[in-house]
Specification:
Radius of gyration: 18 Å
Helix content: over 70%
Number of helices: 8
Strand order of the largest sheet: 1-2
Largest sheet: 2 strands, antiparallel
Distance between the termini: 28 Å
Strand content: 5-15%
Order of helices and strands: HEEEEHHHHHHH
Number of strands: 4
Oligomer: single chain
Structural class: mainly alpha
Protein backbone atom coordinates (compact mmCIF):
# COMPACT_ATOMS: atom_id res chain seq x y z
CA UNK A 1 0.00 0.00 0.00
CA UNK A 2 2.86 2.41 0.77
CA UNK A 3 4.42 1.78 -2.65
CA UNK A 4 1.08 2.61 -4.29
CA UNK A 5 0.84 5.69 -2.06
CA UNK A 6 4.23 6.92 -3.25
CA UNK A 7 3.34 6.18 -6.87
CA UNK A 8 0.08 8.11 -6.57
CA UNK A 9 1.81 10.95 -4.70
CA UNK A 10 4.38 11.32 -7.47
CA UNK A 11 1.62 11.71 -10.05
CA UNK A 12 -0.59 13.93 -7.88
CA UNK A 13 2.41 16.05 -6.89
CA UNK A 14 3.37 16.59 -10.53
CA UNK A 15 -0.14 17.58 -11.60
CA UNK A 16 -0.72 19.87 -8.62
CA UNK A 17 2.68 21.53 -9.15
CA UNK A 18 1.68 22.27 -12.74
CA UNK A 19 -1.68 23.52 -11.45
CA UNK A 20 0.28 26.14 -9.48
CA UNK A 21 1.73 27.47 -12.74
CA UNK A 22 -1.65 27.22 -14.45
CA UNK A 23 -3.60 29.07 -11.74
CA UNK A 24 -1.01 31.85 -11.66
CA UNK A 25 -1.08 32.22 -15.46
CA UNK A 26 -4.89 32.32 -15.52
CA UNK A 27 -4.96 34.85 -12.66
CA UNK A 28 -2.67 37.07 -14.74
CA UNK A 29 -5.03 36.75 -17.73
CA UNK A 30 -3.07 34.32 -19.91
CA UNK A 31 -4.29 31.35 -21.90
CA UNK A 32 -2.77 28.21 -20.41
CA UNK A 33 -3.19 24.46 -20.30
CA UNK A 34 -1.60 21.63 -18.34
CA UNK A 35 -0.19 18.50 -19.90
CA UNK A 36 1.34 15.55 -18.07
CA UNK A 37 4.68 17.24 -17.41
CA UNK A 38 4.35 20.97 -17.94
CA UNK A 39 2.11 23.98 -18.19
CA UNK A 40 1.87 25.62 -21.57
CA UNK A 41 1.28 29.35 -21.33
CA UNK A 42 0.72 31.66 -24.29
CA UNK A 43 3.14 34.44 -23.39
CA UNK A 44 2.07 36.82 -26.11
CA UNK A 45 -0.61 39.44 -25.70
CA UNK A 46 -1.51 41.38 -28.84
CA UNK A 47 1.69 40.10 -30.44
CA UNK A 48 3.94 41.39 -27.64
CA UNK A 49 5.95 39.36 -25.14
CA UNK A 50 4.72 39.57 -21.59
CA UNK A 51 6.32 41.41 -18.76
CA UNK A 52 9.31 39.43 -17.38
CA UNK A 53 7.90 39.91 -13.87
CA UNK A 54 4.71 38.09 -14.90
CA UNK A 55 6.75 35.24 -16.41
CA UNK A 56 8.63 35.01 -13.11
CA UNK A 57 5.33 34.87 -11.19
CA UNK A 58 4.09 32.05 -13.42
CA UNK A 59 7.35 30.16 -12.88
CA UNK A 60 7.08 30.77 -9.13
CA UNK A 61 3.50 29.43 -9.01
CA UNK A 62 4.54 25.77 -9.27
CA UNK A 63 7.18 25.68 -6.52
CA UNK A 64 5.00 27.84 -4.25
CA UNK A 65 2.12 25.37 -4.60
CA UNK A 66 4.40 22.41 -3.88
CA UNK A 67 6.14 24.03 -0.91
CA UNK A 68 2.90 25.43 0.51
CA UNK A 69 1.19 22.03 0.35
CA UNK A 70 4.19 20.35 2.00
CA UNK A 71 4.31 23.04 4.68
CA UNK A 72 0.61 22.55 5.46
CA UNK A 73 1.38 18.84 5.92
CA UNK A 74 4.31 19.68 8.20
CA UNK A 75 2.14 21.97 10.34
CA UNK A 76 -0.44 19.18 10.61
CA UNK A 77 2.30 16.71 11.60
CA UNK A 78 3.39 18.89 14.49
CA UNK A 79 -0.21 19.69 15.44
CA UNK A 80 -1.00 15.97 15.73
CA UNK A 81 2.47 14.93 16.92
CA UNK A 82 1.20 13.27 20.11
CA UNK A 83 -0.91 10.83 18.11
CA UNK A 84 2.18 9.95 16.05
CA UNK A 85 4.40 9.54 19.11
CA UNK A 86 1.96 7.15 20.78
CA UNK A 87 1.30 5.06 17.64
CA UNK A 88 3.04 1.75 17.08
CA UNK A 89 1.45 1.59 13.62
CA UNK A 90 0.15 4.59 11.67
CA UNK A 91 -3.46 4.84 10.51
CA UNK A 92 -4.75 6.15 7.15
CA UNK A 93 -5.19 9.75 8.40
CA UNK A 94 -1.61 9.80 9.68
CA UNK A 95 -0.25 8.42 6.41
CA UNK A 96 -2.19 11.07 4.46
CA UNK A 97 -0.59 13.81 6.56
CA UNK A 98 2.84 12.32 5.94
CA UNK A 99 2.26 12.14 2.18
CA UNK A 100 1.10 15.76 2.14
CA UNK A 101 4.25 16.76 4.02
CA UNK A 102 6.37 14.87 1.53
CA UNK A 103 5.38 17.26 -1.25
CA UNK A 104 8.65 18.84 -0.10
CA UNK A 105 10.46 15.84 -1.61
CA UNK A 106 9.96 17.31 -5.08
CA UNK A 107 12.58 19.90 -4.17
CA UNK A 108 15.10 17.26 -3.12
CA UNK A 109 14.31 15.07 -6.15
CA UNK A 110 14.85 18.06 -8.46
CA UNK A 111 18.27 18.64 -6.94
CA UNK A 112 19.21 14.96 -7.39
CA UNK A 113 18.11 15.09 -11.04
CA UNK A 114 19.92 18.40 -11.52
CA UNK A 115 23.21 17.01 -10.15
CA UNK A 116 22.79 13.64 -11.88
CA UNK A 117 22.47 15.39 -15.23
CA UNK A 118 25.85 17.00 -14.59
CA UNK A 119 27.52 13.62 -14.01
CA UNK A 120 25.73 11.99 -16.97
CA UNK A 121 25.85 14.82 -19.54
CA UNK A 122 28.55 17.12 -18.20
CA UNK A 123 26.22 20.05 -17.58
CA UNK A 124 23.58 21.15 -15.12
CA UNK A 125 19.98 21.42 -16.29
CA UNK A 126 18.95 25.00 -16.99
CA UNK A 127 15.21 24.63 -17.50
CA UNK A 128 14.03 23.86 -13.96
CA UNK A 129 11.81 26.35 -12.13
CA UNK A 130 14.32 26.93 -9.34
CA UNK A 131 17.16 27.64 -11.78
CA UNK A 132 14.99 30.08 -13.75
CA UNK A 133 13.98 31.84 -10.53
CA UNK A 134 17.61 32.12 -9.39
CA UNK A 135 18.51 33.73 -12.71
CA UNK A 136 15.57 36.12 -12.41
CA UNK A 137 16.74 37.25 -8.96
CA UNK A 138 20.37 37.51 -10.10
CA UNK A 139 21.53 34.61 -7.90
CA UNK A 140 23.89 31.78 -8.83
CA UNK A 141 21.84 29.09 -10.58
CA UNK A 142 22.42 26.54 -7.80
CA UNK A 143 21.10 28.77 -5.02
CA UNK A 144 17.35 28.10 -4.89
CA UNK A 145 17.50 24.47 -6.03
CA UNK A 146 20.11 23.72 -3.32
CA UNK A 147 18.39 25.59 -0.48
CA UNK A 148 14.98 24.05 -1.17
CA UNK A 149 16.55 20.59 -1.60
CA UNK A 150 18.21 20.90 1.82
CA UNK A 151 14.90 21.97 3.35
CA UNK A 152 13.21 18.97 1.73
CA UNK A 153 15.91 16.61 3.02
CA UNK A 154 15.64 17.99 6.56
CA UNK A 155 11.87 17.55 6.46
CA UNK A 156 12.24 13.99 5.12
CA UNK A 157 14.61 13.03 7.95
CA UNK A 158 12.31 14.68 10.48
CA UNK A 159 9.38 12.66 9.14
CA UNK A 160 11.34 9.41 9.18
CA UNK A 161 12.92 9.76 12.61
CA UNK A 162 10.26 11.72 14.49
CA UNK A 163 6.94 10.53 13.05
CA UNK A 164 7.34 7.07 11.49
CA UNK A 165 7.26 4.30 14.14
CA UNK A 166 10.50 2.31 14.30
CA UNK A 167 8.72 -0.87 13.21
CA UNK A 168 7.56 0.82 9.97
CA UNK A 169 10.65 2.88 9.07
CA UNK A 170 12.50 0.40 6.89
CA UNK A 171 9.32 -0.48 5.00
CA UNK A 172 8.58 3.24 4.57
CA UNK A 173 12.05 3.97 3.17
CA UNK A 174 11.96 1.03 0.73
CA UNK A 175 8.41 1.89 -0.34
CA UNK A 176 9.49 5.50 -0.89
CA UNK A 177 12.39 4.49 -3.11
CA UNK A 178 10.49 1.92 -5.14
CA UNK A 179 7.16 3.78 -5.23
CA UNK A 180 8.67 7.17 -6.03
CA UNK A 181 10.83 5.79 -8.86
CA UNK A 182 8.00 3.59 -10.18
CA UNK A 183 5.56 6.52 -10.11
CA UNK A 184 8.04 8.72 -11.95
CA UNK A 185 8.76 6.07 -14.60
CA UNK A 186 5.09 5.21 -15.00
CA UNK A 187 3.89 8.80 -15.34
CA UNK A 188 6.73 10.18 -17.47
CA UNK A 189 7.23 6.89 -19.31
CA UNK A 190 3.91 6.94 -21.10
CA UNK A 191 0.88 6.88 -18.79
CA UNK A 192 0.95 10.64 -18.24
CA UNK A 193 1.13 11.38 -21.94
CA UNK A 194 -1.79 9.02 -22.62
CA UNK A 195 -3.97 10.63 -19.94
CA UNK A 196 -2.88 14.27 -20.27
CA UNK A 197 -1.22 14.78 -23.68
Amino acid sequence: MLILGFMASTIIGTISHEAGHYITAKALGYHARINYMSTIVILLINGKLTDPKERMLITLGGPVQTILTGTIGLVLLFFFRRSFQSASKLNLKQWLIIFITLFWLRQTANFVIWVSNYFINGQFLTRGDEVKLARYFGLPEATIVTITALAGAIILFTVIFKFIPIAQRFTFILAGLFGGIAGYLLWFGGLGEMIMP
